[in-house]
UniProtKB/TrEMBL annotation:
<protein>
    <submittedName>
        <fullName>Leucine-rich repeat domain-containing protein</fullName>
    </submittedName>
</protein>
<dbReference type="InterPro" id="IPR032675">
    <property type="entry name" value="LRR_dom_sf"/>
</dbReference>
<dbReference type="Pfam" id="PF13306">
    <property type="entry name" value="LRR_5"/>
</dbReference>
<dbReference type="InterPro" id="IPR053139">
    <property type="entry name" value="Surface_bspA-like"/>
</dbReference>
<keyword id="KW-0732">Signal</keyword>
<dbReference type="InterPro" id="IPR026906">
    <property type="entry name" value="LRR_5"/>
</dbReference>
<feature type="signal peptide">
    <location>
        <begin position="1"/>
        <end position="24"/>
    </location>
</feature>
Amino acid sequence: MNLKFKKLLCVLSMLWVAQLSIHAQTTKEVVEIKVPGTLQKVIDDLESSRFESLTIKGGLNAVDIAYLTSGKNKVAMIETLDLSDVTLIPSDESYKTIRVGSAPGGAYGYSYNIYYISNTYKTFTESRSNGLGGSNVYDHIFCNDLSGAFYGNSSFEKIILPKSLTNIGEYIFSGNSYNTTLKDVILPQNAKIIGKQAFKDCRSLEIVNLPSSLITIESQAFYYTAVRNMSLPSTVRKIGDGAFNGSAIKSINLDNVESIGKEAFAYAVNLECDINLNKLDTIQYGTFRGTNIASIILSPHLKIIGECAFNGTKNAYPKFKELIFPESLERIGSSAFSDCRNVTDVTIPNSIQQIGAYAFYGTPWIESIRSEDGITYIANIAYKYDSSYKHEGDTFSFREGTIAISDGFGYAFPNELKENIKTLQLPESLLEIGNEVFSGFKLLGEVKLPSSLKRIGQKAFSECPKFWCTLPKSLETLEYQAFYNCSTLSTVTLPENLRFIGGEVFSNSAVGTVYIYSRSLQYQLLNWELGVTKSIFGNHSSLKKAIIGPQVTRLYDNIFYNTSTLKTVEFEDPENSELAYIGENCFSGTSTLSAPLTFKNFPTKLTHIGKYAFGGCKFNSEPKLEFVKYLGSEAFTFCSGFESIVIPESVDTIGASVFGYCPDLRFVEYNAKNSFPLLEYRGTSFGGNYFKSAFIFERCDSLQAVTIGPKVNKIPYCMFIGCRELKEVTFRPRNISSRSTGEDAERLSIGESAFTGCLNLNDIHLPLGTDSIGAEAFSSTGLITINIPSSSHYLGNLVFDWCNSLNAIYFNSIEPPAFDGPLTNRERPFAQKLSIYVPEESYDLYQSQSDLWMYNVVGIPTSAIEDILSPQQKASIISVYDINGRLAFDRWINRTKGVYIIKMSDGSVRKVRR
């Protein structure tokens, strides 16, 4: 054997041994976790350096789940994972954080889900500044269904989930990018719910056997998965929006399903089976669009078929030829069956009330229907106009019995017809006029609307410069820009039954006065308007006056938003007005400094006033809030025309800056006792990001006197900040027993910076029951002396900073309160002369406080009245004052603790501490 051959043989032997070694380390491992939280250690201790299959038994907590789904170290090469005998153990740690979208409400930032293991499902939300002028929102979710656990994981090919799971959690296998490895998932047999986006974009997932107990498949659960054959258990009742959108599913039994969401099977181009929908009363938007379904059976109780429900696409369209609609059907949405290229026969029931634009576009059936005077009718609905028809004369009419004119009916109107029609004759049977039906009729004059009419669609009469009408009492819906640019329409009465009204309905019209008699008027937001704030009258309206009838109960969001020409709003019969609800932005943006919106006869029974409802408006009398429960942020900010306001005890929710910057406000009575659940982002003013009820009366420059009710338990953060003219703060008598030490008093906390910048506030008598005083609560005020009640247990940092006139602080409590820092900045000149008066018996305790070391601490003898007046003394008490010189005889008689000045009948004056 030559040397070269020997060397080659040696190399091959070494490679073979190495291969055997590698193969030996590629094993199936079974581990049992006896102590939750030790999974990583147990796996690290295994002899195998690489294994393709791992079976885990025992209890796993969040730390274990986080490691298992990390894709790091030894778990990185696992292809098959068996968790069937795993029990989830609750713990305080989270196991996954995923980004699920943008922050709600249009804030610049993102929304995150943070998951924990818990036997009880619960959630809470927090917001944090992202340092970029916005905030991120974090939903903390406690669950026991492995929600989000394998989110974004791309290593496992097969996973057997724990038998103990009763639900399959949301986002459990979905991810930011396509998951191309996961092929097989075995679900627990007791699972009832598959959460939203559970398998979204698992494009290699081919095998999923649904458990026989399953009830709900939530939104986008199998969105764009490769599952082709799936047996839907008879127990399933609900399928969410987009649940199988774009999936490879070929056949599915929906016999027992009672609810199917929007686009649930849209673009599932392989879906070619027969579909039985006998349980559905509504078929949602786009449910089966872009599929090749063979036939459909509709429920005898079906009422609504949504837009694009079955419409075909370039690559897929339904194969059925016949449509038999049940007698219960009322509405067929736009494009519902468009491009269903095989439909030749349709049975329309007498119950039909609305057919949307292009509902049967591209079907042989609709092309076979002959028009009458240019109008194609489906049952009693004017469906479309024949553009090839030559209309004669200047009058346009519909046949008697017509109940609806479809959306888009006028899309085919030739310009010649639009420029010649002067008269429109509508039958009394008409219930609705669809979108853009008569838009652009240049010569159309007065139109008598039928007394049965319920809906006027988007832009129905827009760009009709000579048009005018009276809205019938039957009208329920008036949609977006219905009368846009109708320059002859000068006065409008919104009838009592009108419920929904769209944006810019009368914009660029001549409407100068509107009478609102609609009992409950709600702004109608269109799908494409999401995230856009609109108003009824638009930014360029000629509206000058609005009169609100007494029967109106609700004015919803944005009704008059940015209607800058509006000058007067008058409420008819305010004492009998039923108006209880005014929504967000209802009158906001209507005023300018030179021409504010003025309110007359403000209603008296309001219970809800939304955010920014009256921003910048002017009142001719004080707004009456006697029954108000909800006051949204900045509801009356920059409002003028009233000198006083009473916040009643009924208020339980109050937002930031409700009465901020009100220039005429001089007197406030505040009685709200539990008014702080409304969390509002306040930006970065005053040194930080705030999500608090705060700044309620900020910078009311004329505010002079405030009365605080006896049941108020908190003066919020920055409540009176910057109220420079505030001189008098009166606390009404609180619930205090005759010999109270403060423990029996109604509790009161004073928030941070509550009175900051009240330069003329020289004196304030804090009531017994004052429990805490927040940081800088009285900074930059004109206080000379102040008495801290014995009930006070906490003082925040720099409570009296920049109080340049302050010379004495009296503490009444034997036990010093907790100090969160010095009372003032030590470098302030006045701090050097500030005296702290404390009970003599507690002198050493106060003197030892590190936050009081720089002040002059003085002990005052404690003495009862018996110690002052001996039986031999002939002098009697003439009057009793507190340390601020106010009469306090009642408090003396009731033996209320504090420091008093007593004037005797012999002319002497005594300073006494009780």
